[in-house]
Design brief:
It is a single chain. The chain is an all-alpha fold. 81% of the residues lie in helices and 0% in strands. The protein is globular, with a radius of gyration of 18 Å.
């Protein structure tokens, strides 16, 4: 299997694993800061347990290997997680995930800035198209402050995701999976600094445990591994899988129907990014 095929397979699997995440957040009945605290703390714990099981005596060496770049990546990821939780609890699942899908374009921009990876004309056109779709989504919710706040938080996630995966690509010779533990601790620290976590019910505690200890460490680890084999824009383009599947799952289970402007803007974003992917593949084959 080529590096590209390996990256595509690993990242696709990651997106399938993470797809129920939004539904679980919707089903958990607690405030965003408590959710962010336990999400961060448990995902860090789950990752450390996994690294200890895999590497045993070498676990500490593996955790320290990313160095300063890993600290930066982990911090960015932790801040992005806080922004994601805030976004998904303050606007619709469809709006959040479609806006985050624009991260592929930010990834392209950061790849050019950090590694001078050339931006083809069709990528620049796609950036314009995704921002047009983004404006449609935001304009439809401009009259509702909470939704607009959530949309802006999702945009923060998109920018930070683009930067994070560009940095992982730049330092691809180093395994950055251990930095996810840093990200989880940063998330928990920010949440606790803003508001002390409150108690959650037994059913919610089970959902948070499944999310934090199993699903998130596995999915994010696969994303970080896939990012070593693919350019940041291509990794982030695969976020489209979650952007399409997760809102459908939420709609089916709890009947959260996306707004009309969200559907229109989402179609613009999806069509633009899909066209970009097709053009990119054709250029590579050519």
């Amino acid at each position: 299997m080529s590096e590209r095929a390996r990256g595509l397979a690993i990242t696709t699997l990651a997106m399938l694993v993470i797809t129920p995440d939004v539904l679980l957040i919707r089903l958990i009945d607690t405030d965003p800061w408590t959710l962010a605290f336990w999400r961060g703390l448990l995902s860090a714990a789950g990752l450390v347990i996994g690294l200890l099981a895999i590497y045993r005596r070498r676990a500490l060496e593996v955790m320290l290997a990313p160095g300063v770049p890993g600290l930066v990546i982990g911090t960015l990821f932790g801040i992005g997680t806080v922004a994601f939780v805030w976004a998904i609890t303050h606007t619709s699942a469809a709006s959040t995930l479609l806006i985050i899908a624009t991260g592929s374009m930010f990834g392209a921009a950061f790849s050019w800035l950090l590694m001078r990876e050339r931006l083809p004309v069709y990528t620049i056109v796609a950036m314009i198209g995704t921002f047009a779709g983004l404006l449609i989504i935001v304009s439809g919710e401009a009259g509702t402050g909470s939704s607009l706040e959530g949309d802006l938080s999702a945009l923060v996630v998109a920018v930070l995701s683009g930067l994070t995966f560009a940095l992982i690509r730049k330092h691809r010779m180093t395994d950055m999976v251990p930095t996810l533990a840093i990200g989880g601790l940063v998330t928990a620290a920010i949440a606790m600094a803003v508001s002390l976590p409150v108690a959650v019910g037994t059913g919610d505690a089970r959902l948070i445990a499944v999310m934090g200890l199993i699903m998130l460490p596995l999915a994010f680890s696969l994303q970080f591994i896939g990012a070593r084999y693919l350019p940041a824009p291509e990794v982030l383009l695969l976020f489209l899988l979650e952007a399409v599947l997760a809102p459908i799952l939420v709609w089916a289970v709890i009947d959260e129907e996306p707004a009309g402007t969200t559907l229109v803007g989402g179609l613009v974003i999806l069509a633009t990014l899909a066209s970009h992917a097709v053009w990119s593949l054709r250029r590579q084959k050519g």
